[in-house]
Each structure stands twice: as C-alpha cells, then as structure tokens.
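Look over this today:
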Amino acid sequence: MSSSSPRVRRKAAPAPVIDTIDTRYLESLVGYNARRASLVIIDAFLRNMAVYGLRPVDFSVLSLICHNPGITSRQLCAALDIQPPNLVGMINQLEKRSLITRRPHPSDGRAMGLHLTSEGRKLTRQAEATAAALEEAATARLSPAERQTLIKLLKKIYV
C-alpha cells in the first residue's frame, strides 16, 4: 500500500444526550454551596437596598456605626476586614449624604469617632428592617434553629 491511499472517514459518535446534570461533586463543596446561597441573598439585597442607595458594604458600615456610636475608621476596617483606603471614600460619601458625622474621639486625640445623623439613624433603621425581611424570606425553608445553626457554622469558617 502506498502512503497516498485514501483515508477512511469514520463517522463521529453522536454527542451523548444529557437529561440530568450530575452536580453531586460540586454540591459536596462548601464553597460552591456558600456561593450559590450568597448569590440568592445578595441579588435580593442589591435590588431592595437600591431604594436606600446602599451597597452591602455601605449597609455594613452604617449598621456598625448605628450599634457602636463613636466607632473609629480603624475599628471599622478591622471589623469588616477592609483596607483603610477603601473606607475613606465611602465615609466621605456617607458624610456628603448627611448620614454620618465625625466628632473628636473622647480618648484618642488623633482619631475621629463616627456617628449617625438623625437622617442616618432613620435610613439605617429602615435598611435593617428591609435586611431582616430579606433574610427571613431567603431562609424561609429553614426552622429558626436551623437558621441559627447555619449562622454558627458559617462563622466557624471566617472567625
């Protein structure tokens, strides 16, 4: 036979039809499940917090200031695990919106304490009520005990 003999074309096997997707491996991963749950919650959060002009991190900052009047920027950065340069612009924007005010810290002359204005308190209370309703809806299939267990287990990962 010569090297120029015609090649025999084989018919490609048809692609298998997948009726059911096997997700067992992915569903065995904590990260995969946490991300899927997070996407559901964050999507609802973004839609509902838009009326307040708040992103998740803005909400977290306002909530921490609400529950810790006089908290410093350094303390906020530590609590939320964010870099100081990322917080500066956010604090300036919240102050520009008249939601927070800076006052001298009572014991650290170099630091400024952050406080909510009356408008900031009102908005934060409304936003926290909205967040609570969103959380309730997102975890509606869990019992109160299961919800607390989920929170406790998640905290074991990042605390």
User: Anything to note?
Assistant: The beta strands are 100-104, 112-116. Residues 107 and 113 are 10 Å apart (CA to CA). The chain has a mean pLDDT of 93.
